[in-house]
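Here comes my example:
=====
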Amino acid sequence: MSKIGGYTEARKADEKIRELCNQVKDQVETKTGKEYKQLTAILYRTQVVAGKNFLIKVDVGDPNCLHLLLYRDLSDRVEVMKVEEHKKDDPLVPF
């Protein structure tokens, strides 16, 4: 459980979260200027706002991981708000 307005605890990514990552792959590549063979969600946290924020730790197929901050609005449109690179060993915390 999370506090009202706060993020949930980190959870193992499920199929819905993996699909969400596939949906935003082009946006992530545009933000980082890199191409990725894969974006495999590992962990995620959510925050309910006027829509929903998603913090997701993603394996990109090399020894590195990304942290993604995604926002899904009330009409289900998803946008990549921020990307942090070199996060393999870092905890999944808001940024």
Observations:
- The beta strands are 11-12, 40-49, 51-59, 65-72, 78-84.
